[in-house]
Amino acid sequence: MSPAQAADIRATPKTLRLDQRLIADMVAPGSRVLDIGSSDGTLIDHLYRTRGCDARGIEIDMAEVTRAVAHGLPVMHGDADSDLAQYPDSAFDYVVLSRTLQAVERPREVLRQMLRIGARAIVSFPNFGHWKVRWQLLWWGTMPMTSVWNRPWHETPNIHPCTIRDFFQLCAAEGYVVEKWLAVDEAGQRSPWRRFPELANFFGEQALFQLRKI
Amino acid sequence: MDQPDLPDIAHQHVAFDDGLALECGVMLPRLVVAYRSYGALNAERSNAVLICHALTGDQYVAERHPQTGRGGWWEAVVGPGLPIDTDRFFVICANVLGGCMGSTGPGSARDPAQPDLLWGTDFPPVTIRDMVRAQKRLVEHLGIDRLFAVVGGSMGGLQVLEWAATFPAHVFAAVPIATAAYHSAQNIAFNEVGRQAIFADPDWQGGRYWETGRIPARGLAVARMVAHITYLSEQALTRKFGRRLRGGQAISLFGDMFEVESYLRHQGSTFVQRFDANSYLTITRAMDYFDLAADHDDDLSAAFSGTRTRFCIISFSSDWLFPTAESRAVARALNRAAANVSFVEIASDKGHDAFLLDEPDFHRTLAGFLAGCAEHAGLPA
Question: Best mutation site among A8, A59, A66 for testing chain B: the one with the most B CBs within 10 Å?
Answer without folding.
Answer: A66
